[in-house]
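Example record

One chain of 146 residues, shown exactly as stored in the release files.
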Amino acid sequence: SWEDLRRIKNYEEVVGTILFQSLFKQSPQAKVLFGFPIGIDTDSQELLTSKRFLMHAAYLVQMFDTALNMVGPDIELLTEIMLELGAKHVRYGVKPEMFPLMSVAIRDAIRVNLKERFTETVERAWVDLFDELSADMIRGMAQAKR
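Predicted structure tokens for this chain:
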């Protein structure tokens, strides 16, 4: 399913935009974590054409791309990276209870782009993958707070 997304022109921005719109609709306070006013409309051109917004959108999708490329052969290194990333996110004000919202946002972005190819099996695989990645990040957050 990820390979299908990668075939979309400017997939990082396309997928990332939908992901962040979903996240911000679920949790308006998440806008503040990314440097946006809480009251900004998630469909506004002000947000959607903002360099900051597009940078975050592309960066997050690139991060997933990197993680997906490491699943399997480099799983130990990926775990280490996710632990470090979790520790880093403590400084940004991210809380463990925010991860399920991001899981939904990722699936929304994939669903919108894959359309009928987003099957129950594909969704389950994404839930499982995100649960594993976020579990490592949450462990890293807990270690950073000690």
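Notes: The chain is about 75% helix and 0% strand.
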